[in-house]
Amino acid sequence: MNQEIINKELSAKKSKIKRKKQSSLWWMYLPAVAAITMFIIYPFFNGLQITFTDWDGFSQTSNWVGLDQYARLFSDPLTWLVVKNTLLYGVGSTILQMTVGLLYALLLNRSIKFKALTRTIVYLPVIVSPLIMGYIWMFIFAYQGGALNDIVMLFGLDKINALGNPSLNPWIIVLVNTYQFVGISMIIYLAGLQSIQKDYYEAADIDGATAFQQFKNITMPLLMPAITINVVLNLIGGLKLFDVIVSLTGGGPGNASQSMSTFMYSLYFRREDAGYAATQGILMTFIILFISLASLIYFKRKEVEA
Amino acid sequence: MSTKTLNKWLLTILALVISVVHIVPFYILLTTAFKETGDFSSKWLFPDYFTLSNFTEAWERANLLNAFTNTFIITVGAAVLLIVFGSMAAYPLARVKSKLNQFVFYLFVAIMVIPPLAALVPLYNLVVRMGMINTHEIAILNNFAGFLPLTIFLYSGFIRSTIPKELEEAARIDGAGVMTIFFRIVFPLLRPVTATVLIISSIFIWNDYQFAIFFLQDSSVHTLTVTLSSFFGENQSNLNLVAAAALMASLPMIVLFLLLQKQFIAGLSAGSVKG
Fold first, then answer.
1. What pLDDT is attached to residue A5?
2. Residue A35 counted as domain residue
3. What are phi and psi of B271, to 5 degrees?
4. Which parts of the sequence belong to the ABC transmembrane type-1 domain (chain A) (predicted)?
5. For residue A281, is pLDDT > 70?
6. Residue A252 and residue A266 in contact, taking contact as beta carbons nearer than 8 Å
7. A62: distance to nearest CA of chain B, Å?
8. Domains in chain B, ordered, with CATH?
């Protein structure tokens, strides 16, 4: 074979490659797109239809009721209660997890003894089901024979009925959720801290910058990507909280600690009010979508500035 | 002692205090699980006798073997689908810049934010119509669809940042087809991110309650979480049994975590900071 033929063959192959490259290879993601279309996108739009009916979730028939379910949604005092709780679970857990997680990461990034052990222990609850975590915290907070009240009584104080207090319960849920997932925030911060080059701190030391100045001007700006990820992960996790509420308070007392997820569940399966449950679902989607996108855009912008 | 060593000691003590605070729930779970019914001594104390009767009784009465089997089948099934179809979908999305591919990629990212539970009512309706309620398959498919966006996000980030294009180009010149190139050359190089996907999705699917409680209502297909919640309902007055069952249900993942700690943590922080 002479050189010319080889060259021709090569260029023919190369143009073939180019043609192949231009095709989207869409068939490779066809199964994935089919799965999300069937189980997420189609149900979402089908859900929109259901919000215009009084469907009970089981019958073959239902009546068209127009915007009635939306009118109910906005006049129902329970809507505002569960939206308020959902926002508390989302925003409250996020703030706590971000702060505590950062403090833990700063501490455990130093060369101290037991740091590996402490990291493991802080991280361990992430592995356990939130449902089970809820039961364990119930052993602790229970009025009769709870571990917390054993200590309270040791000091001669009155027993605390933590789970029977409607204004306290949502905050207990926030604490338990934070306790369970602070490990994820810590690990993400630790990864961020370890990616910062030591030279910056050495240079700052030479310039005589204080520890606080170094934290504010070097650590924080370079941690921004980790902060963004943490904000979005914690917000999404907190806003759709379900399992731990079911096992720890059951949404009670009354409806005091109900979130949008648990409320929707009881509307559908206990009260056979599917049309209204679907309407609550639409509201929940928009709240989560709005809050997570808004915070994502806000923090991404900060990253660019930093 | 210099202030520096003193500081180090104080911080070490602080770390120990944090460890103790965080271990408390696990400690309470242990003391409760090992105590006989009717032993109302403080939850802070271990019993002065040793018995495994709670564990054997809970294992039998809650039918935990059935629950372990169901949970295992669903977790493995969904994880395998996620790895095969997730990596395959990520490849063109990471490599070929076409308008369609960009749209599909952003579609997956947007869906990551939507709570799957929000579409509960119509999804349940769909599953009933397909006659798939109370089957392993529906739990597998639901978890597969639910974790696909995150899986594709992780895979495409990894392909874009670490897999050299030259390898694939060389293979193409040798006449290899796209499928061969992907499964013979690219897929083996994705091992680190495959480990991440496997770890994250197994934890969440093993612990899943939201999907399981809706779609697996018959006791023959109950997973560990559903089994536990109904076992709790039947044994409100005997929390020692519930604690023993909860401990057994959590143990496989805890042991796996302690054995593969490095991979777990690397997995969960991977991509998150870069991404």
1. 64
2. no
3. 75, -30
4. 83-295
5. yes
6. no
7. 13
8. 71-223+257-269 (1.10.3720.10)
